[in-house]
Amino acid sequence: MQVSSLNEVKIYSLSAGRSLPEWLSDRKKRALQKKDVDIRRRIELIQDFEMPTVSTKIKVSRDGQYIMAVGTYKPRVRCFDTYQLSQKFERCLDSEVVTFEILSDDYSKIVFLQCGRFVEFHSQHGHYYRTRIPKFGRDFSYHYPSCDLYFVGASSEVYRLNLEQGRFLNSLQTEASESNVCDINPVHFLFAMGTAEGKVECWDPRTRNRVGLLDCALSSVTADTEIDGLPSISALQFDGALNMAVGTSTGQVLLYDLRSSNPLIVKDHHYGLPIKSIQFHCQLDLIISADSRIIKMWNKDTGKIFTSMEPEHGINDVCLYPNSGMLMTANEAPKMSIYYIPVLGPAPKWCSFLDNLTEELEENPESTVYDDYKFVTRKDLENLGLAHLIGSTLLRAYMHGFFMDIRLYHKAKMMANPFAYEEYRREKIRQKIEETRAQRVQLKKLPKVNKELALKLIEEEGEEQQITRKRKQKNLPSLLKDDRFKVMFENPDFQVDEQSEEFRLLNPLVSKISEKRKRKLKILEELEAQGQEEEEEPEGKASDAESSESSDDEKGWVEEVRKQRKLLRQEEKLKRQERFKEDQQTLLKPQFFEIKEGEEFRSFKDSAKKQKLMKKTLEDRLKLEEKLGTLNVCDTTVGSKQATFKLKKSEQQRKQQEAEKQHRQERKTLRRPASHLKSKRGQGRLFH
């Protein structure tokens, strides 16, 4: 639960914190709650109070038991039962819902206005009936005495659908080209509609005649407001019999008394965004107005801000739970937000434990866990001489460092650097003196760092101011006065190096321009020394001379580029000569490398030959291998070609084959005499 406070009004965000995924089992959820403190401390008021992607509208039934919300994607409606603190049902729809209305006390009768001109009726069991209106609808209201639905949209007509007879009645013809919103007064049933032209038309449903017209666009423009176009009406809400609040597309809220054509009060949100929702809080006389960025609560009599909320995601709709301090919002995010403001009223009956919880929090305000601790890294501990405390109870390990007591840190810092306070004091005194000096009438002083760049910016600003005066435009903010670029003119690390190659090539005319600026700088320094005021043009130099110099610069920029490149080449040549001299002076020591066993040393030319071969085409390589005899290409009978390769043998394999060959020959020579003797003996026996 997240707590925020504005104007001493505490706001409790009950939907803050991480939500657990739906696919997790109950066992894993319980295990996560035991491990993670944030998950254990969070409050899930209504289980799965969210939409798949975005929620667009949210409403509460009249009996207060059911909360209904519509959203995407896919288009659907979800009903939540507050007595069970969980989802009652979910129904998917064919198209996105523009708005909807709960006609009964519970969820048994609902009407949906969809973006495809469809009007869909749902009963307790589900979908009941579907019809279509002639033009695209934007809003509708239900007239209880006659059972009529009034639809407004992209048309000048207001369509009437009677739910008792089940048919369309004659429509109301208005002067507006389009209508955005509508509402019916709950006391005397006056029908009001807000148009795209910034007007509000009031109609009597009994006579079907227009009884009033308010020009809200004209009334919303005050002395302080800045409006680009014609404001249209984006929100409309009645309060009692006589009061009506109107919200415009430019971010103004106008409160009217129906007896007067002038607004009682005009409240501007100052964001220029359309007002999405307006709610009345009768007990405290507050108006709760919301655009897509902020929810403001203000007094309807004085217009004084009571409190405000800026949620993390964009707001689509706001719903105030009746007779309580609970506020719900439909957002541009899956999770729908729930806020509890005890000042507005008590918690609803189904979550009365919130009152006890907030009272306990107010009685025992807990300070932040690490308010009295200082975070230090290992290097900081070594500088303070406290590295020996690592592992003791005085240091608490956290991430890449440690937390230590702030009192111990201050004592150690004072001992390590006893003059730190004196230096800090001097620096503060110097800053205070500079602040007081800044308030005096001063000459235009240039900064210590990047003086030429500052002078260039001042000159450009002067030229721009002259142009804007002629064209009657607004002056752009100065770069020198911008806090984001303040360090560039204070820190010497940001000094522009004019001798670098990049600067000289990008600025070919820098030499001539810098000479002019250097002259100006000298004159400015002399003026500062004498205490004189800075002149628009330096003495002894006419504007004609400057214009002639600028024209010469424009003509000779090519020559200047060539000169700069020549100078750069000469500098590179000198650098190369210096490197060559240094290389000659240095003595190279011979290095020895060990060759592995079974391998022979080959010349370094082999690798070069291989690289040359890899660069050659496949055809050249095949021809070379054919010459060496490792490749044999022949034609086949079919007409294709056949290529056979002989793999090159390594030196070790070649030696092994030669040894095997020699061994075979020796064995053959040994076998020959024995066979010769056998043959002789056989011959002797025959002749015997």
UniProtKB/TrEMBL annotation:
Residues 648-663 have a biased composition (Basic and acidic residues). Residues 369-417 form the Nucleolar protein 10-like second domain. InterPro entries: Beta-prop_NOL10_N (IPR056551), NOL10/Enp2 (IPR040382), NOL10_2nd (IPR056550), NUC153 (IPR012580), WD40/YVTN_repeat-like_dom_sf (IPR015943), WD40_repeat_dom_sf (IPR036322). It comes from the Eukaryota. One of its GO terms (cellular component) is 90S preribosome. Residues 528-557, 642-688 are annotated as: Disordered. Residues 528-538 have a biased composition (Acidic residues). It is found in: Nucleus, Nucleolus. GO terms for biological process: maturation of SSU-rRNA from tricistronic rRNA transcript (SSU-rRNA, 5.8S rRNA, LSU-rRNA). Residues 1-364 form the Nucleolar protein 10-like N-terminal domain. Residues 482-508 form the NUC153 domain. Residues 664-688 have a biased composition (Basic residues). Pfam families: Beta-prop_NOL10_N, NOL10_2nd, NUC153. Keywords: Coiled coil, Nucleus, Repeat, WD repeat. Belongs to the WD repeat NOL10/ENP2 family. This is Nucleolar protein 10. The gene is Nol10.
